[in-house]
What does this fold into?
Amino acid sequence: MAVSEMRLLLVEDERALGEGICAALSADGYTVDWLTDGERASHALKTEHFDLLLLDLGLPRKSGLEVLREFRRTGPPTPVLIVTAQDAVEDRVQGLDAGADDYITKPFDVNELKARIRATLRRSQGRAQPLIEYAGITLDTAAQTVRYQEQNVILTRHEYMLLHELLASPGKVLTRERLMQALYGWEEEAESNVLEVHIHHLRKKLAGDLIRTVRGVGYVLREIA
Ligand code: CA
It folds into this structure.
């Protein structure tokens, strides 16, 4: 889809910031709709179609997190980029857990915002194929096998599931909670360091720099240029 056909919804209550973002994104050809409170955002999301949602978390009338949770329960799988304060690690974790695709922290450079929007849109357009190929890795979701640089790699069931989860969203930070849930569901009790152990094994069996630790949040599969 061409940029000129993309419709973005920006929800941001800071006037100057909202105006700046609108101007910058419009200059790139995006269609940008801008709302300044959570209540109106929820209403717009129910009645209109957008290709990406850029959502501030601290909003009047209804928090960004509430807007996001409601949208993820009932809405289409539209990519969501959340905007958080620099020191609000907990907000970021909750936002990602609630289904945000990525986040950007204030203050940010407008070029970084543009790059993240492009990356988020690219990812959302390239989902769901049986063979996942990425950075020399080929994961066959039908046969449940993995090859790395043309060699078969033997993974345990949990390592395979973890790699699959990471490969589904390269460049997106996946929280520990989300990964643990993907591996063990709600029921199963697991040791607290079990995730680190699986990651350690994946790094050894594949490339050491493939999976990046995001301190206090989770893990991200390195994006390739
Ligand atoms: Ca705000």
